[in-house]
Every structure is written in structure tokens, then in C-alpha cells.
Amino acid sequence: MARRTKQEAQATRQQLLEAAIRVFAEKGVSRTSLQDIAQRAGVSRGAIYWHFTNKADLFDAMMESAVLPMEQALQQIGHVAGQDPLHELEGALLFSMRSIASDARIRAIFEIATLKVEYVDELMTVKARYAASCADATREIKRSLQDAATHHGVLLRVPVAVAAQGLQAMMTGLVHTWILAPDSYALVEVSQAAIHSYLLGLGFVQPDSM
Q1: Structural domains in the chain, sorted by start
Q2: For labeling, which of 130, 136, 170, 196 is most exposed (least CB within 10 Å)?
Q3: Among 9, 54, 15, which Cα is nearest to 32's?
Q4: Among 72, 36, 62, 41, which Cα is nearest to 126's?
Q5: 9-44, pLDDT tens digit by residue?
Q6: Residue 10: helix, strand or coil by DSSP?
Q7: What's the predicted TM-score (pTM) here?
């Protein structure tokens, strides 16, 4: 019985997250109330507070469901013996782009985070966590670039911290621009070419393409 109750609670939590995505996409985050989400999910408003402290907590959980696999892909670089860290870095970055381009749910979440949220009031905490997540990603990219430079015997043409920040900013810019106009270019193909060119510019010779 306890297992069933836990499963039902998890199902309700997921139901609330999916309802939040739909309502945020329709109304924007600021104009969406917890009551709106509860009604869309078909549950009581009290059910939301059983799972989430407030709207910021719910929004944060929604974002985590989309970006956690991407963060984990970066964190796994260098953990398998014999792998080329440069090849792994390209693969992790393109995994994120493929996820955004091919998964409608993930794409909707990124559209909400890019176009339909104001990071004010209670969502300031979400902004801080988002900034921390970006900083973590940049650190993982920096580590991977340093490992790749050592692996390939390459002297990077700019400091590794600058290279990592630039690569992170480029990927973020590609996503944001594509979210604004998805038909303007193929996200995965353009990202692959951009990553390849960026790594060549850093001094890597013919980096592997995924």
C-alpha cells in the first residue's frame, strides 16, 4: 500500500509539472497562478503545496527535468578510460542540441525560460540557480577543454577559462536564437558546424565530428 501511495504521489507531481508547462506556455510565468496549474492538472491547490513550496520551486523543478540530463552528459566526460575528451565534449554539447530540437517537451521548457518568464520577485531565486547552473556547465567545459588539450598536445590560443566561457556563450546563443525562430536554421547541424569551427579556432586539428 505504501508503495502505491508513493507511486501515486509521484504521478501527481509529474501531472503538476506537465500542467505547469502547458499553462506557462500559454499565459507566461508571471500571469500564471498556482490555482491555474491546479485546475489544469485536475487537482486541488493544496496538492501543489504538498509537492512544491511555491511557483518558483515548481518552475525550478520543471527546468531541472529538462537540463539535468544535459548537465550529466557534461559531468560524465573523462570518466571512461581511453575516450578522447574532445570527442566526448562534442558529443555532450550535441546531445543537448538534439534534445532541444527533437523533444517537444524540452523545447517548450526552453521556450518558456527564454521568452515567457520575468526573473523578478520570487523567481529571483530561480535566476540565481540558473546562473549557478550555467557556471557549473562552464566549469565542466573548461575541464574538458583542458583535458582535451593535454590529450592532443595542443597549446590553446586563448586561456582555457576564456575558451570555455566563449563556447558556453555560443551554445546558449544558438539555442536562444533558434527558439525565437525555429524555422530559420537547423539547430543540430548549425551547432555541429559551429562547435567544429570553434574547436579548430582554439588550435585543435580536425576535431572529431559527431
Answers
A1: 1-52 (1.10.10.60), 55-202 (1.10.357.10)
A2: 136
A3: 54
A4: 62
A5: 889 999 999 999 999 999 999 999 999 999 999 998
A6: helix
A7: 0.88
